[in-house]
Amino acid sequence: MEREPMRIREGYLVKKGSMFNTWKPMWVVLLEDGIEFYKRKADNSPKGMIPLKGSSIHSPCQDFGKRMFVFRLTVAKQQDHFFQAAYLEERDAWVRDIKKAIHHIDGGQRFARKSTRKSIRLPETINLSALYLSMKDPEKGIKELKLEKDERVFNHCFTGTCVIDWLVSSSSIRNRKEGLLLASSLLSEGYLQPAGDTSKAAAEGLSDTSFLDLSDAYYYFPDSGFFCEGYSSDDDVVLKEEFRGTIVKQGCLLKQGHRRKNWKVRKFVLRDDPAYLHYYDPAGGEEPLGAIHLRGCVVTAVEDMPDTKKYDADNILFEIITANEIHYYLQAASSTERTEWIKAIQSVARTGFSCISIFSRQVLHFLLYQILLLLVHLYK
Prior knowledge:
Elements: E1 7-16, E2 23-31, E3 34-38, E4 48-51, E5 56-58, E6 70-74, E7 80-84, H1 88-105, H2 116-119, H3 128-135, E8 145-149, E9 152-159, H4 160-169, H5 176-188, E10 193-195, H6 197-203, E11 218-220, E12 227-230, H7 234-241, E13 247-256, E14 263-271, E15 276-280, E16 290-293, E17 298-302, E18 317-321, E19 327-331, H8 335-351, H9 358-378
Antiparallel strand pairs: 1-2, 1-7, 2-3, 3-4, 5-6, 6-7, 8-9, 9-11, 9-12, 10-11, 13-14, 13-19, 14-15, 15-16, 17-18, 18-19
């Protein structure tokens, strides 16, 4: 009896349509000999199958402008398939496992892809992924700052000069010229992102180098709490405060709608301090579809929902009840993933604080100070 191909990896990815220029979330399964993709996880038969024999994979793929974390799989018949992950580490994990599967099925031949490492002749000893983690180290890494330029405020970012300075100080390079090569590679591979017109123009090829060693060229880590704002009212500041926190966890989950009770795949980003869970359309859109304020919330696993239709047969549900008693029902891909999300949300809900505008905090401090003066006066 022929053995069933082993499942190497599965999860939600956004896939570009083969005939139409549409991007839709799919349940993707990586097998030893191919990739299957389903409209829903519970479907018995896939919408399509991509054979891996003779295929090649290219990452990062920057053919689609603002779409981040895209990789391209080219099959033996020279047909391209494009997939988008929810965040950088997820993309790298998929690419790594697909490479291993291709290497195995092609009989041990070494898989060679077009690589930034080769084009800029970086030493093979340099591990970009490990370097990226070192750059993000809270103690010894690059410090994220709030920078102002052209009446805009860039939060959680840093300058190109800071990047090169850090590479020199960490002995990753011998001189600033080498630093430009290494930083350009980090930018091309998606480990750094440009912020602001100056750095974006360079990244799009409008400068001699894609990365700029300048104090007015801004960059940020793709999974940081980066956001840009103009000078605005206190109400806008309150809204932007939601995005100030560090990203604790992110990924795709199923969410039940409040009105139609239908289930849709959404990309969720969990931030702490203040504690917010934002959700996005995974197929595109930089602005969140909504936000769940987690301060004081209750999150628990749900074993059954008798009053509503489940998305599929797997009952891997959990519920978030906010402080103002709004109920959100979410579904994970596995029991392990559900447990991880519940623990992460619980930790953030305990440590986060309510979002209060800067103006409100100043008024509160002033009132407390006046009360203190009054008490001192009464006891004299």
